[in-house]
């Protein structure tokens, strides 16, 4: 009887031990969390690039040519050949004792001289760059008879030959600025005189004096 009671007591102790071990019998993950407590990680959104997308340059719209209102009709021009002045030694800065050509912030005297030769040399019959220089300098330093002149406030001198329709500009230092045959003819010269007259009027009114 005593043996039976001891056996029953042992069975009861084993039952209680099994109940207490329930939760600890479940394996945890490596972090010590039970599967029920584990939550799937949120999906990380793709990083947004800080650099904006490249800007695609648009091709410029084509220019549309329009006739200028009140434009002067081109004057019919006949071919001419201006007489060259004395031949002088030309460098990239000098033509004899004179400055070769006027210069500016973008182009040298030589670059301006060659540009004007390529653009206007054929208008006055220049067969070469050297002859072009002799023609231009001869025209502004020893103008042909009948050439009209006009002075600007900045010291420039304007020339116009109405017989050959030739216009030129010289700086106060004797450097050519340009020489060409205006397609408007004498109307171009009249416009230049009007511009200079208006400039003088503005200058005189600004200083409250009169021109001498």
Please render the helix and strand layout as text.
Layout: H1 2-20, E1 94-95, E2 98-99, H2 109-120, H3 129-141, E3 148-151, E4 157-161, E5 166-170, E6 176-180, H4 186-207
Antiparallel strand pairs: 1-2, 3-4, 4-5, 5-6
Fold and architecture overview:
This protein has 212 residues and is of the alpha+beta class. The chain has a domain of 114 residues: Nuclear Transport Factor 2, Chain: A (Roll), CATH 3.10.450. Helix content is 31%, strand content 11%. The chain has a four-stranded antiparallel β-sheet with strand order 3-4-5-6, sandwiched between helices. It has a two-stranded antiparallel sheet with strand order 1-2. A hairpin with a 5-residue loop joins strand 3 and strand 4. It is elongated, with a radius of gyration of 48 Å. About 25% of the residues have low confidence.
Assign a percent range to the helix content: 25-40%
Q: Any low-confidence stretches, pLDDT <50, length ≥5?
A: 16-44, 46-70
CATH class of the domain at 94-207: Alpha Beta
In the CATH hierarchy, the third-tier topology of the domain at 94-207 is known as Nuclear Transport Factor 2, Chain: A
Number of helices: 4
Globular, elongated, flat, extended or rod-shaped: what is the shape?
A: elongated
* Number of extended strands: 6
The separation of the N and C termini measures 153 Å
Radius of gyration (Å): 48 Å
The overall average pLDDT, rounded, is 76
By secondary-structure content and strand pairing, the structural class works out as: alpha+beta
**Strand content range:** 5-15%
Order of helices and strands: HEEHHEEEEH
Spatial ordering of strands, largest sheet: 3-4-5-6
CATH-defined architecture of the domain at 94-207: Roll
Q: What's the story with the biggest beta sheet?
A: 4 strands, antiparallel
